[in-house]
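Class, study these two lines:
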Amino acid sequence: MSTANPRADLDSNLGLNTLSIHAGEATDPSTNALNTPLYQTATFAFESAVAKEDAVDRALEWEPGVFFYSRTGNPTTYALEQKLAALEGAEDAAVGASGMAACATALMAVLDAGDHCIASEDLFVITRVLLDEALSSKGIEVTHVDVTDLDAVAAAVRPNTKALFIESLSNPHMDVADLPALAALAREHNLTYIVDNTFLSPSLLRPLEHGADLVVHSATKWLGGHGDAVAGVVAGRKELIDRVRFNMDAFGAAVSPFNSWLILRGMRTLGLRMKASSANALAVAEFLQSRPEVAMVSYPGLPTHPHHELAAKLLPDGFGGMMAIRLHGDAETMGKFAAALKLSAIAVSLGDVHTLVYPMPKRDNLIRLSIGCEDTDDLVADYAQALDAC
């Protein structure tokens, strides 16, 4: 049996940057190492058969800091979970193998066959596959609505509706959901309210503070920030997280300890990276909006965004690094523009310190941009030369 010793005595009112560095971590008691060790082990040894039985029973009841097998729990992952819980203002958090593992185990924790779920109309494509194919095939009904239309959400509620699933900033159109208003509607109808906050991170938005029951992230993205590890997280009340943990364990959705260690390392600079990406994104959005080659820029930090006033209330510390644009012209024009960029790799992911561009010809030639931490002037100059080239 092994136990972790995270720094649990931190003031919860500490700033985000301080919590990003210190929460969940403490000097290693064995070696005095400052950084949390990578516990790259599948199993943990016991002093006796009696100790083994006791540890397994305690770990299966999700007692913090008790480990016997890394599918169920690992000290490196536990440190990450404590850091994430502190940043989200949650009672607990569970880390899984990917963002989709987080979404699936969260939804399966509150939905059974015969239940109904309301979900955003504008969603990450694989989340739609999860909802419309995987869950629907198991007898769970799903209705997609425009969650920026509260009347439409209310009209979709049925007697068997059990959950409301949204993205705080939608993928890929960048719609901003009114989280407090949706929370009130969810409470009125006794729905479990789940918010995917991948695009913004707890650095810019903490959905639990706006009434969400659970918040999920693809930790691969802004939380890790370096494009080198795949993981997902669910945070919220311990009662719900215990159910999520059960699903992660039963479905074998455990994260690699090494990936936990990489995400843990990346999160120490979360606030700094989000501040830089937000500033860069606003500058790039303003520049692109000024160019005649650009037909549309969807970025919540622009006054022209349809939900800008709401975004300004919900996101006082920055609007994030994500935007969507559309050029005048066809798919060939879009392709030439993306290929001409020198500082923006064409890639499907996001939330990296590198700026990434994701052309979407099947979505009316929409281009999703994930703005990184390069120097602002260099990014603007790169987009200028790419527009000139196409």
About this structure: The mean pLDDT is 94. The two ends are 61 Å apart (CA to CA). The chain has 14 helices and twelve strands.
